[in-house]
Write a structure and sequence with these properties.
single chain, 17 strands, 10 helices, Rossmann fold
Amino acid sequence: MPWYSFLLAPFALIFRIITSIRNGLYDRNVLKSQKGKIFSLVVGNLSVGGTGKTPMVEYLLRALSSERKLAVLSRGYGRNTKGFLQSTKESAPSEIGDEPLQIFQKFGESTPVFVCENRVKGIERIYAIKPDLEAIVLDDAFQHRSLKADVYILLTPFQKPFTRDFIMPVGRLRESRCGAQRADLVVVSKCPENLSLEDKASLTQEISSYLRPSIPVIFSSLSYCMPLALGHSSAFSGNVLLISGLADDRLFLDYCKEKFKVLEVFSFPDHHEYSRENIKSFIKAAARVKSESPVFLCTEKDGEKLKSLGKGGYLGEFPIFVLPIEVKFEPQDKEILLTQIRKKLVSK
């Protein structure tokens, strides 16, 4: 914690009281939670961003889409619109949010992607449009208590699990650690490769003290894929100017510094809305190192934003590439995850 945490402690206490009262009202059915007409699977967290929810949603779509007719529902964080919208080929990040657009670009029309702030109303609208859907994956709805989902998957990052974090503004938790009791399964995300059995056992015990009995705790890591050209055919030089708008970009930066020659780094807050001034500074930086044949390399969710501000996947004369990521599980953890979901699907 920062040295000035004691100054923030009163605000954290107030925030904890407010969220605890709200959760208590839902737990005692004073405030009502509604079941959706379609099977709902929530991927969420207790903290503010940086746990890898979107890669996890994409993993579930790849794993389950051959078995069930799926859709995705997100709030569409960072969009300039409101209400219920469906992603289309003409959708822009400003209309539906960067992460929903990223998912739609990968899975296309076969897995419809919707955005709506009110998840209950969103599911009702989806059911009216597509009554044959068998399941909806909700990105970041763990605190949306008006919906009673069928499965809650709670993500917590290995670098700072919720058990070692604190309520905002002292820490990054949106509610107290006790909120983990709503989880049906916990995924420790962004784990280092070859995490020891001893470390897994220790962290499992630590997390399980906040869970209901017999709730599984499993572990995942992120795998970076080959850089992909964003709408052009230029070669990837390996000499990169990094651009990222992430809640926590440490893994992204560390990987790129290990694999490529990083010429300059531009780091921004999560869901950053890039401006023309940003673009000018990127182009100027690339021009300074033009002799090294630089390319821009960014995260997937930032790629479409930059593409919309550039021309044909270029910023000036310099090409843009994105670095895709995928979630990886050990076979036994993958089996636990999918078995939990399939059991609930069958019983629905």
